[in-house]
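Customer escalation, tier 2.

The customer says the design service returned an amino acid string that "doesn't look like it belongs to this structure." They asked us to rerun it and document both sides in this ticket. The original structure tokens are below, unchanged.
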């Protein structure tokens, strides 16, 4: 089959700048190349200069230039002359250019990665069957044109049952199925821990790690506040890995600056790494003792929880979105109400209870096996071919 993949228009594919959605696309493209399944064209923003050509006999990349002077000029003209319809004009410029090319081609299936709002536009220029791969809560009864989007689409694949339930609020007859995210387990199973001393930690420190984007809805501020209640435990440390945006290695934003200000009272207990390339994440996690996912929003199905599981870490996570679909048996689940005290209590529990911690470590590794990138990709393609 001839398949077009419309990426999100934010980060490039291949995922040279990171991004959970982009990594997941890479996994199913890799599987497609290995098994010679389909002829796939990927529409993506252009990667940084010097990125090797990733075209294969089964995968082709159509890049939308948004970084050269000509690409920036075209995008600027578009932004100045068009109103934002669904997302923001910069993303919409990407889709405008991508859909122009799709209109000239013949595809059997078009996959919209986390951009359901463009299903109607795509349906007007192509006879292909449309599949929406939904990573976030972007299609529900409150969404703009939700029923029309469902009418022109042929299937919705969601990353969690939580997101599936949100789509079901529309009351459409469109098939909806869940394919849980997967990760490259071997990358985490075989990781060599980085030397703790390079980050200023001691060998006997108890390291709690947060890894991911640093935004208010991720609960990092509340995690730092929990640590202010742990002053009497000087060897409990907090490692915060990430920046405000994938691939952002330049300085800090206002929110991160506010977190650093908040942590001044316990500066000896907290290390901010800034952005870390995805390939290095397994080695960072391998040196830690506990992972915390303190999401304040309804987190759909964070791959960070799978990465912590594959690293054999006990987990503390909030009862939000699709989180509990992954980590039963290897996590302490806390409610978002009174989260600061609950995080403090849970960290102390795992610090003091080796037996509980060891059980959760074993379960993390054991249950992570359900989220292989190969199983994810196989199930993803099975769902796709069912509509043909």
């Amino acid at each position: 089959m001839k398949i077009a993949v419309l990426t999100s228009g934010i980060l490039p594919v291949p995922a040279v700048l990171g991004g959970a959605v982009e990594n997941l696309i890479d996994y199913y493209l890799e599987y497609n190349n290995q098994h010679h399944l389909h002829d796939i064209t990927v529409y993506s923003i252009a990667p940084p200069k010097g990125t090797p050509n990733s075209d294969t006999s089964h995968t082709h990349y159509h890049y939308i230039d948004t970084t050269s002077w000509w690409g920036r000029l075209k995008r600027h003209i578009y932004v100045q002359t068009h109103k934002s319809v669904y997302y923001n004009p910069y993303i919409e410029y990407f889709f405008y250019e991508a859909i122009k090319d799709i209109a000239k081609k013949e595809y059997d299936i078009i996959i919209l990665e986390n951009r359901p709002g463009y299903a109607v536009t795509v349906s007007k220029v192509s006879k292909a069957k449309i599949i929406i791969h939904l990573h976030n809560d972007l299609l529900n009864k409150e969404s703009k044109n939700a029923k029309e989007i469902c009418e022109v689409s042929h299937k919705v694949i969601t990353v969690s049952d939580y997101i599936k339930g949100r789509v079901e609020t529309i009351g459409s007859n469109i098939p909806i199925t869940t394919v849980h995210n997967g990760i490259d387990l071997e990358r985490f199973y075989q990781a060599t821990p980085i030397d703790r001393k390079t980050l200023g930690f001691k060998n006997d420190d108890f390291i709690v790690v947060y890894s991911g984007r640093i935004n208010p809805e991720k609960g990092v501020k509340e995690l730092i506040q929990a640590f202010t209640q742990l002053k009497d435990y000087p060897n409990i440390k907090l490692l915060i890995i990430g920046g405000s945006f994938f691939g952002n290695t330049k300085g800090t934003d206002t929110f991160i600056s506010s977190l650093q200000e908040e942590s001044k009272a316990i500066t000896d207990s907290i290390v901010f790494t800034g952005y870390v390339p995805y390939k290095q994440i397994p080695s960072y996690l391998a040196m830690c003792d506990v992972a915390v996912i303190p999401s304040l929003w309804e987190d759909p199905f964070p791959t960070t929880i799978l990465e912590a599981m594959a690293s054999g870490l006990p987990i503390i996570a909030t009862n939000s979105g699709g989180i509990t679909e992954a980590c039963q048996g290897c996590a302490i689940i806390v409610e978002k109400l009174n989260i600061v005290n609950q995080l403090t209590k849970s960290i102390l529990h795992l610090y003091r209870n080796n037996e509980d911690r060891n059980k959760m470590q074993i379960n993390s590794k054991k249950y992570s096996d359900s989220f292989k990138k190969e199983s994810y990709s196989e199930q993803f393609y099975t769902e796709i071919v069912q509509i043909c």
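Tier 2 assessment: The sequence is consistent with the input. The first strand starts at residue 2 and ends at 6. The chain has 14 helices and 13 strands. Sent an explanation to the customer and offered a walkthrough call.
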